[in-house]
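Subject: Protein record for review, amino acid sequence with backbone structure tokens
Concerning: The relation between a protein's sequence and the shape of its backbone.
How to read it: Take the token row as a discrete description of the fold.
Enclosed: The protein record, placed directly beneath this head.
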Amino acid sequence: MTNVTEQAAMGGPSRPSDRRGRRRALIILGAIIAVLAVVLTSGALAYAKQYEGKALPGTTVLGQDVSGKTPEQIAALVAEQAKSVTVTVTAGDQEREVSLADLGVSVDADATAQAAVDAEESFGDIISSTWSGENPVDPVVTVDEAAVADFATGLIPEDRTQPVDAGVTFDEDAQSWKVVPGTKGQGMDPQVLVDSVTQKAPSLEDFSVEQPVEEIAPAITTAEAEETVGALSSLLEQPMSIEGADGETHEVSPERRSGWLAVTPDDSGKALTISVDEDAVREWVSAQADQDSVEVKDGIEQVDEKGEVVKVVAEKQDGLKITNADAVAEELIAALNGTTPLEAAFETKTVKAEVEEVDAPSTDDEKDADKKDSEKKGTEEKGTEEESEQAAEPTGEKWIDVDLTNKTVTAYVGDTPVWGPRSMVDGKEGNETPTGTYEIYLRYDQQDMTNAAYYPEGHPKYYLTEDVPWVQYFHNGYGFHGAPWRSSFGYSGSHGCINMPVSDAKWLYDWASMGTRVEVHT
């Protein structure tokens, strides 16, 4: 007995009945756990079902719990809050209360709501969300910075002026450059409002902004304009001249230079720049060169059948050509763009004149005699009429010879007289017809002629002649015209014009044209 009891006390093998009891207990515990798992899973799934398409537990928007709310409910909440926000903007002595929309702030309520419900809806997420506390969602807010800046600019009171840049103008009366002073304005830096709105608008809560009104200086100050006038004065004080071809000097006066200069803002709009009208400079230099130039004038001498000179119609005159007008213009432009003096000179080239020999016209009696001799002799050479006319057709420039000594007018083509000499009446003493080389510049088939510009009606020297035919002016008021009031020609007796028989005046009118050369000589 003693041995059995000791073995049991020392932990010997259990009996079969003990092992069966423990297995039974384990089975019962497993069953209980299984039942609890089924109950919990079913409950969790039911719990998760109620948050499908809604905000999970702990979700907040604008500090408000939106758990279990639909996107539509959340969007309405955000939109209502955004609409109620008031922004107080103080600018100078004025205060304005505006909405976010007035400032160009847009709130996307739908996007905010979607962000609140966009979460995994698994059992684990739901349980995690329940135990983790708040899950804040920020509203989707967009700030149009340009619109905020425009709003800020619009806050400038109407009685506040914009800054005005200083300028420089030329005073025509005083013939000097003057400063137009700049004036300060008032404005604001819109970035202050932009930064405040960008920072505070996303909270969708009322807020205030202090937008300071500042004094704004002009981009171009009065001092800068005064410096520009000083630069102009230095430029105009420099001597500038061009030595002419005839030894005289063309002074480029300060007044003339001022007419070529202009003062305008540069491309940046922050400084003044002096510019030169280069085309006007080139035009002026060209005009001076033309003034110094001498047009070549070829001489004309009438020769008889033996080639001997019988009369000098026009004396030859060598020409003078300026060869460096363009270079002088560039020198002047360079000087106007700087502050250096100019001492330029025209360079010249002599253009040699030539003498053209022309056939001396025969008198009317000689022509009549020649005509009779020709009728007696007949035409010895045969050929078509067209060939004869072509062979006899002269070539060259049309021009008119006015011989004041012989009182005749002759029409030439090249070196060949084609009409005349015809008798005329030239200017009487005190009204002499001027000599020289001219061109026909004005023509009338009929015109009233008067000297009323010099003598009033009733003056002894006043005259008015109506319907004067076939008028061609070649110099000032001097011209060719028909004189039906005269019965004879070949003497001096007009007021300076070349009086001709009406038929002769018409022939010359039909033959000549604008620009036809006229040589008047003694």
The radius of gyration is 56 Å. Residues 122 and 387 are 120 Å apart (CA to CA). The longest strand covers residues 464-475.
